[in-house]
Known about the structure:
Number of domains of chain A: 2
Order of helices and strands of chain A: HHHHHHHHH
CATH architecture of the largest domain in chain A: Orthogonal Bundle
Distance between the termini of chain A: 70 Å
Oligomer: homodimer
Number of helices of chain A: 9
CATH superfamily of the largest domain in chain A: Tetracycline Repressor, domain 2
Shape of chain A: elongated
Radius of gyration of chain A: 21 Å
Amino acid sequence: MSAKGKAVRTRTSSTEIGDSIFDGALDLLEEQGPAGLTVRGVAIRAGVAPMGVYSRFGSKDGLIEALFVHGFTTLQDAIDSPTEPDPLNRLRAGCLAYRHFALSHPQLYHLMFAQMMVLQLSEESLESARHSFATLTERVSTAMHAGELRSADPVEVAQQIWSAMHGAVSLEIADVHFAIDREASYASMLDALLHGLGAATR
Amino acid sequence: MSAKGKAVRTRTSSTEIGDSIFDGALDLLEEQGPAGLTVRGVAIRAGVAPMGVYSRFGSKDGLIEALFVHGFTTLQDAIDSPTEPDPLNRLRAGCLAYRHFALSHPQLYHLMFAQMMVLQLSEESLESARHSFATLTERVSTAMHAGELRSADPVEVAQQIWSAMHGAVSLEIADVHFAIDREASYASMLDALLHGLGAATR
DNA sequence: ACAGATAAAGAACAACGTTCTATAGGGAGC
DNA sequence: GCTCCCTATAGAACGTTGTTCTTTATCTGT
């Protein structure tokens, strides 16, 4: 309050706004799910005005799109991070890391795939999803060349593996999972599929 | 308009309102996706007042829950409908019917799983999801008893199959599918998994 | 036929995403 | 350092949404 009784406007340094909003959105999303992602809620969390979402991300959808890209970029890193010398083991470890990412960020993972049917996504954003798929395909291809998986179109095989992983973690984070040991169930499904694709029994 | 210039209220027979709203919601959902599912939009489509959603379904969420139950009930029928004499073939046909259902009702399928992470669902509604899973488990169990799948906990195995199916169709209806022949890709993944679970090579 | 309960229609309210208006930060020029 | 102007920030207003409240018509029981 100023000496004249008028409210004093505070103003955030413009270099911090984008990050504050993005971090606030990420936090609110995991804490409250998609219902927590309101423009006002994010702005309050970030300590800025709601208009900041529009100047920085263009719209609420733009903010969601930024979360989408961040999610796929992080997912790609997860698939890519294992460094086992054996190609099949490296692929498998990447698949385990996939689940770990999803379970560590359940709401973000859910948003990434849910928004594909909802949001009008830019080519650039879709590219981030494609990159994570390409990383998986590359790992599959390497295991094929090493003779550890039956030779086939690596894209087709990667699609199958991705489908299985996505289905498993989606049901798991939604708590629609009736198996007792969820981690073992995921590993077992993965091994059954890899075996069906030509891997030696694990 | 009455002779006195006052609008004449029309009133729908109460036995029709619930069905009109539900059918309107189902149509709008498939035509426009979740964004089309507004209370006013559904009411207009059904030719009733928005308040009808509340008296019949309790809330917008209640309407969505009715769609959820309808979806899972229909999905269960799809899994259950094949009558092939051979248990493994019957299971496999049910899995193909699963995909057919999802592709025929992409938005409904998406809503069914998306809402699991969003909606506070009644025990009754969750039971409809469990019933469709139980049907799949039963089919798995029968194939095991016939010696066509390796003996294991049928729940665990059904969970794996469901995960793979769910992942595959989810990515397919979201158009995140890089394989050339999607139907063949699904069948191939299914067969690889069933083979890994003990089925003779198809 | 009449009365009362209930649910249907229509209006109003609070919260939402978005756009508009007022204000302050930051950079350029002197 | 000071002034001016542009831009982005905060705050307010607007249209749409889900929901609740009020009015009105249907339905049931006597």
